Amino acid sequence: MSATPAAVNQMPREHYLNATWGIRSWLLTTDHKRIALLYLASVTFFFFIGGAFATMIRIHLLSPKGLLVTPETYNKLFTMHGVAMIFFFLIPSIPAVLGNFLLPIMIGAKDLAFPKINLLSWYIYLVGGCFVLYSFSTGGLDTGWTFYTPLSSVYSNSAVTPAVLGVFINGFSSILTGLNFIVTVHTMRAPGMTWFRLPLFVWAQYATSIIFILGTPVIAITLLLAGLERVFHLGFFNPALGGDPILFQHLFWFYSHPAVYIMILPAMGVISEIIPTFARKPIFGYSFIAGSSIAIAVIGFFVWAHHMFVTGESTYAALTFSLLSYLVAIPSAVKVFNWTSTLYKGSISYDTPMLYALGFIGLFLIGGLTGLFLACLGLDIHLHDTYFVIAHFHYIMVGGAVMGYVGGLHYWWPKITGKLYPEFLARIAAITLFLGFNLTFFPQFILGYLGMPRRYASYPPEFQVLNVMSTAGASILALGYLLPMIYLTWSMRYGAIAGPNPWPGTGLEWRTPSPPPTENFDVTPEVTWEPYDYDNRPDLGLDVSGAPALAHGDD
Amino acid sequence: MHRTGELYEQYRTLEQQRETASLGMWIFLSTEVLFFAGLFMTYTLNRSTYPDIFSEASKTIKLSWGAINTVVLIGSSLTMAMAVWASQTGKKKALTWFLIATLVLGTVFLGIKSVEYHDKYVEHHIPGWNFQFEPGADAATNAHAQLFFSLYFGMTGLHALHMIIGAGLLLWLIRESLRGRFTPEYNTPVENIGLYWHFVDIVWIFLFPLLYLIDRH
Ligand code: HEM
Ligand SMILES: [Cu+2]
């Protein structure tokens, strides 16, 4: 792994974790690194909640008639699973945990532009989370994570109002994070840190933040209207009172399609950091990767109605949205091509983060390509609302985004805690995750193709084998998640000391001690080098054999 | 965060701090635009579905109050702009007075708004609360008129909420201004709250014709 002599690897005497003590110093902190850890704890909590619901779903589906719960409860299980995972785990995960921790360090700043607002956004998240937990524990929620009206606003007997309020409130946490990130990237960069020297992770966070600030307010107002409609019996989206339920769907997806990019873009950013580090090569096509993040954020706003092909929207609208959906695949593919080109002729080492990155590329590819199936009008009529859609988005959101998140956690764990995790165990876990994931979700493509609809508590007996396979996979997957939780926690205390740059990486975050001091750098850095420039970094002590010839690229 | 003079720890210079705050406000306002946009979209769709009832319902709102309020609000934007100018040129006394004037005009607006809401209450035009559009109106007319009034209350209510928040911010500005905190070198809060205030005014400039002026020639 590291070529740095062991003697250098000492923990700094004072760092952000031990600078101050006591519960108040955490709950009132404005240090972006501590806030990141607060978020880490809270999103992990919601991951467990969502995971518990998922476990029950998979157990229930072991038998065609359903093993565990009534159909009414089943509706609640998948709804609460979706709401917890999407709004309270996946959307905040990479931005609010890794982004919060890394963004200021990567650009050489002392903190985010608005540290207090950063803390505020965590509290808003907590308040939103409490409302949602209240809903879950007093009657549950059975509308689907999409809150479609008039089911949510009139007919559902579950605790919709607090849930809608919770998601509404949580939106402002996203907005504030996005605002903070955008402003930080614009005004807080260290001397010499030009836009095209920014790490690609920062570009990805920037693109994500654009969606946060332009998309989230729309879902906020939409859910507010749906909530008001439910409480005061108004009619915005209720056809019985002259309203239009399709309008709700348009407004909902105007946010929620871009929101799928909120989930995947940051993960792409993580992958763009990991790949050059473990290929020991400058990233291929830096500006294309940076530009494609922005392109995805922008085009992503114009494809929403591909979720509504079967609602009776006009043929011309459907055609347009189908075409635009194909367009958005282009920048996604650009990234995949650039990552693979970076690997080409690299000196690759298969450390744990790299395993996650490679897994990401494969799974994202499958998820993205099946997205194209769905964007195809004729095919979607067959596939819409089947398990094929479930498999599609889980390949991207779990196989892609969660893999990116867990991979990123491993990659920066030595920076965050100053400790190394047990590498062998971590590789086993990564492989377990990958296998478990595929066993869980690949059968669902087939199930969907054969016609098994989503959101039903029972299914015809001929689908049982594939469902059992999926449940078996889910238990392996669960193991794959539990392992890192255990050994990462263990390593905080018992792990080997990491030193400032264990991999070694080229970014600014690797030029400060691990864990970093509260102000991030002892002196404000001045950037005079290009990003990912492995060819010109003798200081990293890497043995790039035949170095002089390689220095200016042979490809 | 610690602060040295007016400079917070995370910034290198006052100039950087000013730029940061102002960019933050602009981005916040773009979020706000999208927030209101959802309502405007709902309005547009419903009005194009029920044009006749929307114009009938709109005529039951008193034009005069809305017109007076428009003038009041534009006036408050003027005094706010003057306040920003006063803070930039170091006229501390004038600054306080302009801020107070803005606050007074904002309060007048809210006062008139509550009179209007009260009128609607008397006429049974509050959605979801014994709503009755006209005596003897059939169920469909009632439902569609209720849509108009739901939007009326939703849009003006959200706008009023922004005014109330603005008034709170003005109160704080007045206090700080009385303490002499704002100088030509440091006046970012005045500038930013000014931006916010103008934004809220602009929203009203759209709301007024959309809600009060449908089909009035
Ligand atoms: C390569 C570009 C992509 C295309 C062309 C695409 C296309 C589609 C289409 C057409 C649907 C609707 C299918 C149906 O309901 O019948 C869909 C559903 C979905 N996609 Fe994608 N997608 C893409 C990328 C993504 C990404 C990156 C994510 C997440 C990170 C994602 C998450 C989802 C989700 C969550 C749904 C289902 C929502 C629901 O109904 O509950 N997709 N996709
Ligand atoms: Cu979509």
Can you walk me through this structure?
The complex is a heterodimer of chains A (555) and B (217). Helix content of chain A is 65%, strand content 0%. Chain A is mainly α and 555 residues long. In chain A, helix 3 packs across helix 8 (245-279) and helix 8 packs across helix 13 (387-417). Chain A is globular and about 70 Å long. Residues 1-7 and 545-555 of chain A have low confidence and may be disordered. Chain B has a single domain, classed as Cytochrome c oxidase, subunit III, four-helix bundle (Four Helix Bundle (Hemerythrin (Met), subunit A)), CATH 1.20.120. Chain B has a two-stranded antiparallel ribbon. The interface between A and B is large, with 41 and 38 residues. The complex binds protoporphyrin IX containing FE and copper (II) ion. Protoporphyrin IX containing FE binds next to helix 8, helix 10, helix 11, helix 12 and helix 13 of chain A.
Descriptive tags:
heterodimer, A: 555 residues, mainly alpha, Cytochrome C Oxidase, Chain A, B: 217 residues, Four Helix Bundle (Hemerythrin (Met), subunit A), 6 helices, elongated, binds protoporphyrin IX containing FE, binds copper (II) ion
SSE pattern of chain B = EEHHHHHH
Shape of chain B: elongated
Indicate the percent of residues in helices of chain B.
Answer: over 70%
Instruction: Give the tally of β-strands of chain B.
Output: 2
The end-to-end distance of chain A, rounded to whole angstroms, is: 26 Å
The CATH topology name of chain B reads Four Helix Bundle (Hemerythrin (Met), subunit A)
User: How many H/I helices of chain B?
Assistant: 6
Mean pLDDT across the residues of chain A is: 93
Ends distance of chain B: 57 Å
Q: How many β-strands of chain A, per DSSP?
A: 0
Count of domain modules of chain B: 1
SS-based class of chain B: mainly alpha
**Fraction of residues in β-strands of chain B:** under 5%
